[in-house]
UniProtKB/TrEMBL annotation, chain A:
<keyword id="KW-1133">Transmembrane helix</keyword>
<keyword id="KW-0812">Transmembrane</keyword>
<feature type="transmembrane region" description="Helical">
    <location>
        <begin position="21"/>
        <end position="40"/>
    </location>
</feature>
<protein>
    <recommendedName>
        <fullName>DUF4352 domain-containing protein</fullName>
    </recommendedName>
</protein>
<keyword id="KW-0472">Membrane</keyword>
Amino acid sequence: MSSDDDGKTGRLRGWWSKRSSYSRKGIIILGIILWAYFTYSLGYSEGVDSAIEFDEERFQLNIVNYTISPDPDGFCTITVEIQNNYEEPVSVDGISITGFNSREDPLYGWAFGGPVLKPGEKTRIKGTIFEEHPQNFTVGLETQAHIF
Amino acid sequence: MSSDVDDGKTGRSSGWWSRRSTFTKATLIIIPLLIVGFLSFMLGDINGSSDVYDVLHDKAQAEVLNYTVLSDYSGYPVVRGEIQNRYSSAMQIDYVWVKGFNRDGDLIGMGRAPVFRGSSRIETLGPGERAYFETTYWSFEDGYGPEDVVFFGITARGNLLTPSGKFCT
């Protein structure tokens, strides 16, 4: 043995070669599962943090009014008029739509943003509610915007 | 030879492996581990952000009718305003959040504002009802203070309640 490292490596090889084929496979698979679990947890934590940070930097705009009408695909089109009541220009990210129908089943929708609104400016945004029309339902809206 | 087929395969594989250099062996182990790690990380990242958005997507906003910004005795902003539930269902709302941004557009402070009717704190707004909010607690990023805030953004959101009183989720 030329060094301690060689000694350690040798002991490790010796230990490894004494394991049965079944044990070796088990150790390798367990190691891969633990590694995947560890990296998945890191990724999950990163995803939660980035989504919370993204959300924290957003704020809402005023909803002036909205109308709901049937669309050609059998769902509903929602047109929402929003206004920037702040004293700075803002960029509209979108409007998330939630709600429930007469059976209290949840419904969802989304209206994509994009426009930049100057202080006091209004715009209309169209979105889709994934619910058949006509239905008796209640919708809730949440606008999201950030500083331009 | 008692088990030619199996031993043959294992032997060939073992022989092939033993002929690799230490560097090649290390590479052949590390690269798959990096790929598995990267894919697991990306899957975790997508699921983590998706779970947060699922919770947030169930919220609806109360309208901010008006607000004013004052300062308390220590220079911290007091943002006071009025919100209204404009839906035909009741809404549960725990806090209104006031977000303070600096000149560069960075979020540097978060103010938490409970909701009041008269002097009593409330957490449920009936259809069409109005209520007041006022910031009672602020947290600022390290190195920043109230004097750095040039813009306030407001988030007043809660959960709609179904007729049977359940959260709309």
